[in-house]
Design brief:
73% of the residues lie in helices and 7% in strands. The protein is mainly alpha-helical. Helix 1 runs antiparallel to helix 2.
């Protein structure tokens, strides 16, 4: 495809991506973002746990947050593995 500029024609190379590869790329980006969010939650909960100052309610809430974030991370990794397996077979 050529785009006319002020002085000369410029070649624009638009990559051609198949539908399954595009879907894989989008899902991988979503998994990466969700994984980063889970890691951020783990770090924040760890900080809350360290700054609980012996308050059992705050420490328990921080531990629950860590547990839920780890469960979320496991779900994201499982979803990543399942979708890559399925797209690899199709």
């Amino acid at each position: 495809m050529k785009v006319l500029g002020l002085l000369a024609a410029i070649d624009v190379n638009v990559p051609k991506v198949s539908g399954d590869r595009l879907m894989t790329n989008i899902l991988n980006l979503a998994y990466f973002i969700l994984g980063m969010v889970a890691v951020i939650f783990i770090i924040m909960a760890g900080y809350r746990y360290l700054t609980a100052n012996g308050d059992p309610a705050k420490a328990q809430k921080a531990m629950q947050t860590i547990l839920y974030a780890v469960i979320g991370l496991v779900v994201v990794v499982a979803a990543f593995a399942i979708t890559n397996f399925v797209f690899g077979r199709v």
